Amino acid sequence: MAGRSMSEYIYDPYTTVHTKLAELVAEKTGEDPQFVSWLITVPPRKEYGDLSLPLMRFARKTGVKPDELYREITEAINKSGLDVSEVSLEGGYMNLKLDVPRMAEKLAGLIRKGWSVSLPRIDKPRRIVVEHTSANPIHPLHMGHARNTSIGDTLARLLRARGHIINTRFYIDDVGKQVAIAAYGFKILGVDPLSESRKLGMKPDHFVGWVYATTFSSIEAVDLKKQLNDAGNDEERSRLQEKLDGIMAALASLKERDPGSYFDKIFEHVTATHDNEAEIQRIMVRYEKGEEPEKSLIRGVVDAALEGFRESLSRIGVVFDDWDWESELVWSSRVGKIIQEAKNSRYYIKYKEADAIDIPKIIKELLQTDEEARKKIKLPRGWEIPPLILVRSDGTTLYTTRDMAYTLYKFEAFNADEVINVIGADQRLAQLQLRLALLGLGYRKEALNLIHYDYEMVRLPGIRMSGRRGRFVDMDSILDSLKIRAEEEVRKRNPDADAAWIGRVSEQIAVGALRFTLIRTSAPRPVVFDPEKVLNLEENTGPYLQYTHARACGIMKKHGSIDFESINYEACNESRRRNLLLMTMRYPMVAAKAADDMAPEDLATYLLKLADEFNSWYQVDPVIREPDVGARECKALIVDYFRQTMKHGLELLGVPAPERM
RNA sequence: GGACCCGUAGCUCAGCCAGGACAGAGCGCCGGCCUCCUAAGCCGGUGGUCGGGGGUUCAAAUCCCCCCGGGUCCGCCA
User: Fold this and answer.
1) C-alpha A43 chain-centroid distance
2) Which has the closest alpha carbon to A373: A444, A437, A443?
3) Average of per-residue pLDDT values in chain A
4) What is the ipTM for the molecules in this complex?
5) Residue A494 Cβ < 7 Å to strand B
6) With a 7 Å cutoff on the CB, does A293 touch strand B?
């Protein structure tokens, strides 16, 4: 028995029919079962049946006539004993009607044995690293990060539920210039970021964010004033003046939000310093070498920001398996090793007098003949990609160089088959360069199994978010407003409930509203985030699903446990019940496909439709007041299965599922 | 200038990868439904040159080409 699974995995009745049908058709047509499974659809009209197969499609490929195929498949279905009650041929489609009462009976049998909803497990599980969020530790998480986090965490949940072995990681970008700027600000203030923010009663990442924005904007203001003095023509002057006005306005707003009396200290210091840039440069260079006191200074800032991140993340149900420090990669010579390998490589060149990798040559030599690599690397046709510079003239490393080392580290640390980077679409070129560079250095497996899961930005209706100016809608305050809005509603509906319960449920609703809204739009399209509109908790929102789930829970609570012996399964055939049950039973297949396609939005769309189906049924077919015992218990079974399914789906999306709200 | 992504109802979005059975939801707007399992709900109505044009096909929102509009990227930034 060793090495083999202890028991055959038990599929729900619907998955069984769907899967077996796909296999059977695949056998008859010589197609791939997976492909056939995609083509099995739900007919647009109920009269046509429950499942349908586009026979013309298979006929075209195999040369067998549709009615011939129809005859063969029908025969095979009859022999197989699938829960199919009727088949028909209409307009080139083979339509199947399922034996729902029999499926319901099987389902009840499973539930009685303690079986619960789950996804069909993938045949060959992979070890997958999902890196997501990885926000710069210099300001609070804003809505852009929230989308990244929601996508990343949901992907991890989906893939895990499908049977893959998942490792989630957060990349701490502590080596770059931006962190050095924040550190410079704290150096001027001479305070410890974490303890100072505690003293202020402020979330540490918010404090860091304020100091960073103030420092950065002050420096920029000083620089611009200098440029303005040197500017030649009027056109140049007015352009600079306009830019300066913008920064001064941002500074005024930052001063207004001064959490203590820090503003003047930073601003005056920066103004009085001859060369702020050199100061920052010094911090950066010394940190890359791991020298004190810069090391403690930067770590202090970053630790404070991360502390704030963890608070926000745990609020929306996100935890990471590992936190990786970029600096560790530099200090541990992993980055140095990559640079050395590059120098020894046939793709090493000097570009603009710096050490670089000849990306065009890699494309020319390695992608022309290697069909698989071409496909997986996803190189756009006419894209000219410049060589990749590895090291600055001052000897410090560049982001992409460090990312090469990090990519290899992720594969190695988890012994991963695949690494998914959830990163914005604006980083496409960089991510492509990364894959090509790794390919050039001989890391073919890593290059081909590094997936850039890209998503478009979150925009606000009027303004453009800018961490540098301290202008963004941060996740914490969005959650706070959502919670306040939810509280009104919960209190209204539960006047006797105690405050603690109201607070808990409202928090769950806030989290659900936020995560759902960020996951339901497919990744490649931009999300326009209107804080006002998210406060609407009606249909097509997370709270709508939560509410529907809570309704089902309410019914089951009143009904009590199901009397399985009394169930009349034929009662499932009543049209609306049948629709609801069937749609509910489709869940495992839908969720599995969403996982395989890495398309969480498909699950979101399905759950909305499922909730609609439940709500319209709910309105007309009462459970508790049903006089006929057989029908009542049948309905209770449907409600209970729906409740279980919805809860499972919501959990995959990271939307909490309160039982009352 | 080049490349990539997006463009479906007034608004927010499914459907496109794997072409086929009347182009779907929600919001909004109009009209109904709480002595009855939570009205964050339900029922009905309103609303669409699927950005435009060509092509492939028996069949195109879906595939190919061109164009238009919006976004993004082309750093010794990250």
Assistant:
1) 31
2) A444
3) 92
4) 0.96
5) no
6) no
Give yes or no for CB of A427 within 7 Å of strand B. yes
Distance, CA of A365 to C1' of B24, in Å: 48
Amino acid identity at A259:
P
Q: Strands A348-351, A354-357: parallel, antiparallel or unpaired by DSSP?
A: antiparallel
Share of chain A above pLDDT 70, in %: 97
**CB-CB contact of A307 with A207 (8 Å):** no
pLDDT tens per residue across span A411-440: 999 999 999 999 999 999 999 999 999 999
What angle, rounded to 10 degrees, do the helices at A143-161 and A587-596 form?
120
Q: Which amino acid is at A192?
A: D
Residue A380 token pair = 């756009």
Tokens describing residue A303 = 């630790």
CA dist., res. A297 & res. A626, Å (int) = 69
> Residue A96 contacts by C-beta under 8 Å, 6 or more apart in sequence?
A21, A49, A50, A51, A52, A53, A77, A84, A86, A87
Which residues fall within 8 angstroms of residue A92, CB to CB, at 6 or more apart? A54, A55, A56, A66
| 3 state SS of A469 | coil
The dihedral built from the CA positions of residue A586, A591, A596 and A598, taken in this order, carries a sign that is positive
Q: Which of residues 80-119 of A touch strand B (CB under 7 A)?
A: 90-93, 95
Contact present, A641 and A584 (Cβ < 8 Å): yes
The C-alpha atoms of residue A47 and residue A37 are separated, in whole angstroms, by 22
H-only helix segments in A113-260: 143-161, 177-189, 193-200, 204-230, 234-256
Amino acid at A532: E
Please tell me the distance from the alpha carbon of residue A286 to that of residue A187, in angstroms, as a whole number.
14
Give chain A residues 551-580 with Cβ within 7 A of strand B.
Answer: 551, 553-555, 558
Sequence-distant (6+) residues with CB within 8 A of A108 are A564, A567, A569, A637
Q: Name the amino acid, one letter, at A600.
A: P
Rounded alpha-carbon distances, angstroms, from residue A90 to A38, A131, A596: 20, 48, 31
Largest CA distance in chain A: 91
The whole-angstrom separation of Cα A598 and Cα A351 is 38
d(CA A120, CA A112): 20
Structural contact between residues A638 and A577, judged by C-beta atoms closer than 8 angstroms: yes
pLDDT tens by residue, A246-259: 889 999 999 999 99
Tell me what the mean pLDDT of segment A579-594 comes to.
96
Q: What 3-state DSSP class applies to A418?
A: strand
The pair of three-digit structure tokens given for residue A155, joined into one six-digit string: 């992907």
Q: How many residues does chain A have?
A: 661
Amino acid letter, A396: T
pTM over 0.90: yes
Nucleotide nearest to A526 (CA to C1'): B6
Q: What is the DSSP letter of A41?
A: B
Q: Can you tell me the distance from the alpha carbon of A429 to that of A448, in angstroms, rounded to the nearest whole number?
A: 16
Please state whether strand B lies within 7 Å of residue A48 at its CB atom: yes
Dihedral angle over CA of A23, A28, A29, A33, nearest 10: 10
Question: Residue A325 pairs with which residues in a beta bridge?
Answer: A172
Separation in Å: B17 C1' and A16 CA = 26
